[in-house]
Write a structure and sequence with these properties.
single chain; mainly alpha; three-stranded antiparallel β-sheet; about 65% helix
Length: about 120
């Protein structure tokens, strides 16, 4: 798994380093519009590849690491159970031109109070 992570990090980091090196070396070189457009496309592609590294690391750990997966399940279970058993405590107030309506969202079956 470590070899796979290192390979993925290397593959996604090399294009970024090449792009930075190219930009630095051609900083003072006059460029026409077509070359500038090609450089911008290259920059966008390289940035997308470098963002891909972070998401792939998460998925690799989720698929291959048993301990990571167990901790993820614990966190998800804790979050889901808390959101089911504890209502969202929010007092909302809706003001219209003619009346004010207060909403109490602690109980899903609560009634709307009008003032």
């Amino acid at each position: 798994m470590l070899l796979l992570q290192v390979s993925l990090a290397s593959i996604t980091a090399v294009p970024h380093a090449v792009q930075k090196l190219y930009s630095t070396l051609t900083l003072n070189v006059p460029k026409d519009d077509l070359t500038k457009a090609a450089d911008n496309v290259f920059i966008v592609v390289v940035r997308t590849i470098s963002f891909f590294n972070h998401s792939c690391t998460f998925y690799l750990l989720t698929l291959s690491g048993k301990m990571f997966r167990q901790e993820l399940y614990k966190i998800m279970k804790k979050f889901i159970c808390r959101s089911r058993h504890e209502g969202i405590h929010a007092n909302l107030q809706l003001r219209t031109l003619t009346q004010t309506i207060k909403l109490n969202r602690t109980d899903p079956h609560s009634e709307i109070q009008q003032q």
